[in-house]
Amino acid sequence: MAKEAFVDQDMCIACGICVQNLPDVFRFDDSGKAECFDPYGATEDEIQQEAIDVCPVSCICWK
Ligand code: SF4
After folding, report:
1. CA of 54 to the centre of ligand 1 (A)
2. DSSP string across 4-57
3. Cβ(61) to ligand 1 under 6 A?
4. Per-residue pLDDT tens for 6-42?
5. 55 close to ligand 1 (CB < 6 Angstrom)
6. Which domains are present in the chain?
């Protein structure tokens, strides 16, 4: 089964890196925090390298 990324919004500081790097996967929700709205909008490698690895507070993980 494919992995799905998940944002811990309690930790997200809304820096925008994940949204900017992978706009087909992450977006800001109404609370102003990032959410993963399409876990299959990019490859697992892209999500790992362009979001999980570069999130400054390490609040994106695989569920
Ligand atoms: S990179 Fe991390 S802190 Fe920045 S918006 Fe995305 S989830 Fe939030």
Report:
1. 9
2. -EEE-TTT-----HHHHH-TTTEEE-TTSSEEES-TTSS-HHHHIIIIITT-TT
3. no
4. 999 999 999 999 999 999 999 999 999 999 999 999 9
5. yes
6. 5-62 (3.30.70.20)
